[in-house]
Known about the structure:
The protein contains 13 helices and eleven strands. With 384 residues, it is an alpha/beta fold. The strands form two sheets. Strands 2-8-7-6-5-3-4 form a seven-stranded mixed β-sheet, sandwiched between helices. Strands 1-10-11-9 form a four-stranded mixed β-sheet. Helix 12 crosses helix 13. The chain is globular. The model has no long low-confidence stretch (mean pLDDT 97).
Amino acid sequence: MSPSYDFDTVVDRRGTWSVQWDGVADRFGVAGLLPFTISDMDFATAPEVLAALRDRLGHGVFGYTDWQHDDFRSAIAHWFATRHDTRIDTGQLVYGPSVLNQLSQLLRMWTGPGDGVVVHVPVYDGFRKAIGGLGRELRGVPVGDADALERELARPDAKVLLLCSPHNPTGRVWTEDELTGMAASAARHGVAVISDEIHADFVHEGHRHLPWTRVAGQARWALITSGSKAFNFPALTGSYGLIGDPADRAEYLRRMATGEGLESPAVLSLTAHIAAYREGGPWLDAVRGYIAGNLDLVADRMAAAFPELGWRPPQAGYLAWIDLRPLGVDDDALQRVLIEREKVAVMPGAVYGSDGFVRLNVGCPRSKTQAGVDALVRGIRAVR
């Protein structure tokens, strides 16, 4: 018999220093809003992860820790083999405190000030902050526009293709043909590829994620990811990556150990990853199925209220990226109504460089999803 998990019971996250719940006023200017914002979930992590964390806490000694051991490496290899049908070279593994930290380190290694970093737009705002903060130039190409991508990669100062796979915020799962085409273009123009695959474990039925290692070819590359998104433990910190070139890998590790002082990882992150990747598969399958139900709820509600949108659930993730442009809705007016009247916080598309969209996080109990989509529908109707 498969295990049973409860995703309907609401867990009160207020007062836990939650960015989504307690920090909502920082972005929206009003405290106490019902949030559908930053991409973490309102569910407790897998019971198997919690049990492993309790066992480790019971040991009581939390000294400096090493990540370069077989328990961690083999758990990652097991996960890639069983979930993505991909055999990885564990000798290529590296560690970092977060995916964005790894990204910043790689951009420092592979680019200089003013160099172009090519990304698909709309773009995750963390990418924009990292690229701009380092003084590099973000070069946006529309999702799915292979010709525009080729033109940008061909520019002499284009140094990195930063790929979000699956894509955030659209939830697009890249096909094998698309990925092999990107790899060929990058190799042709001498552009390195950094593939952020933190959403890979949330691909929905009918679609398949292909890790970059399967298509990397001759281009310089890195794959960066973490179990924290799928298993909802980003507060534990911790991520890992694979870097193809041995010299690049050694340089990355040298920089992390010396310039960054980050050679020792957070032990609870290692514990959580190992437990998740060895034992957490059934929980992840269950939560992904539950979230697919949430997304179907959003689709049904939007179809009933605004059939002209033709909105369909994303191919991956728990973020409903909704194009409202056919309705002629004023973004600022909608945000005012959502905040002031409906008392909800929903991310505007402008955060990701796309006016006329909203991003609704439905990684939550169904009752909250229902409240959020109902508030969004009422808000849209109020400003049309």
